[in-house]
Amino acid sequence: MNVMMLWVFCGLLALTEAQEICYNRDGATVIAVSLIRPNTKPPPGTETPIKGTIKMIQNYGRPTSMLLQITGLPPNTPHGFHIHEFGDTVTDGCQSTGGHYNPFNHTHGSLTDQVRHVGDLGNLYTDEDGRIDDEVEDNVVSLFGPYSVIGRAFVIHQKIDDLGQGEGAAKAGSLKTGNAGARLGCGILVFTAYDQTLSCFRYNMQLLLLCASLTVTAARYEETMWHVVMATAVSAIMPNTKPPPGTETPVVGTVWMKQIYGQKTFFAVEMSGLPPNSNHGFHIHEFGDIITDGCQSTGGHYNPFHHTHGAPTDAIRHIGDLGNLFSDVNGRISKQFMDEKVSLFGPFSVIGRAFVIHQKRDDLGRGTGPARKESLITGNAGARLGCGVICHAACNISPPGCALYNN
């Protein structure tokens, strides 16, 4: 089976499963949000105080709506607007988001062209105050399935996108980038909580600013020499910005992930700043919101099948149940492990969700007496010390994790 056949099979399977689980659970609606912030490493002369928010909503099988509110751009100007492949907005500023998201290897085009990149969203136009207040609807961009844009990045460009219509010397660039010029600002797309209405987005300007600033993220599906589909992801763990009193902890670190389709997912964890010789529950939580209420706004453990909490080796557990991490005498954690339930593929991918490191030891669902009820929900792991969004990642930005996996 070649890679294209594999993707077709996986896509059909994923969409079928996604339709069933989403219609049963939440009316087949997915909501995402992205904070646009200035390029941290802009080319000389392109520094722009751009900021804003893009909210997205899609009902399964319907177009995706994008609501944009952006400020800080030059007045009365057009700007190319795209979704790029990676969510990494830190390694090299907006440049490290890669090229336009283009899983089908098409040429660049306009929003209405049949042949275009998935990430081709045309142009945005500022008013006399340098603001954009617009809505874009698109049938190609999706928040569902194997080509979901969750965990990727929006990019606002300096110039007008020529929509693939460039001629002469501009033709080659036109069919790749639309000759839209430098990247003024960008932002990661993450899952957010909602309660059936668009007005219930849980976000603020600080939410995704910290997400975009502190979470090293990106995405890559690649074909190996054996024609096996591979995915990599990475997350930067940072302290809880709104810790419960007495739980302030300077935890920082990185979690690398890698998975070959159909196999277990590999994790490489490096953290510091924890109390020495201590146990800490470690989970994947449902949402990528790490700022609205600190790590508390990541929601509960990622648990799409409504199972009880358990150990990583239990047959019945949350997908997000990853057991405990143990710090050494210096308060550091360095651990590698594999897990068969966590996936970077399909409708239950953990991309766009969040890692959380807890204050206490996870009892793995073995609590008794008064602790029994909470044991089956959270493992009684206590306060959330730190967290980080999980996003698609290019292997070349995480050599320790990739080297360990390859070895």
Unreliable segments of 5+ consecutive residues? 1-27, 195-228, 397-407
First-last Cα distance: 26 Å
- Structural class, from secondary structure content? mainly beta
Largest sheet: 10 strands, antiparallel
Total beta strand runs: 21
Could you tell me the mean pLDDT? Answer: 84
Q: Shape from CA axes?
A: elongated
Q: Which bin fits the share of residues in helices?
A: 10-25%
**What order do the SSEs take from the amino end to the carboxyl end, as H and E?**
HEEEEEEEEHEEHEEEEEEEEEHEEH
Radius of gyration: 21 Å
Strand content: 25-35%
* Alpha plus pi helix count: 5
Pfam family, one: Sod_Cu
Family: Belongs to the Cu-Zn superoxide dismutase family.
Catalytic activity: 2 superoxide + 2 H(+) = H2O2 + O2
Enzyme class: oxidoreductase
Fold and architecture overview:
Residues 1-27, 195-228 and 397-407 have low confidence and may be disordered. It contains 5 helices and 21 strands. The strands form 2 sheets. Strands 11, 12, 13, 14, 15, 17, 18, 19, 20 and 21 form a 10-stranded antiparallel beta sheet that branches. Strands 1, 2, 3, 4, 6, 7, 8, 9 and 10 form a 9-stranded antiparallel beta sheet that branches. The chain has 407 residues and is mainly β. The chain has helices at residues 3-26, 171-174, 205-214, 372-375, 399-406, and strands at residues 29-38, 51-59, 64-71, 78-84, 91-94, 120-125, 132-138, 153-157, 183-188, 190-191, 220-223, 229-239, 252-260, 265-272, 279-285, 292-295, 321-326, 333-339, 354-358, 384-389, 391-392. It is elongated, with a radius of gyration of 21 Å. The two termini are 26 Å apart. Strand 13 and strand 14 form a beta hairpin.
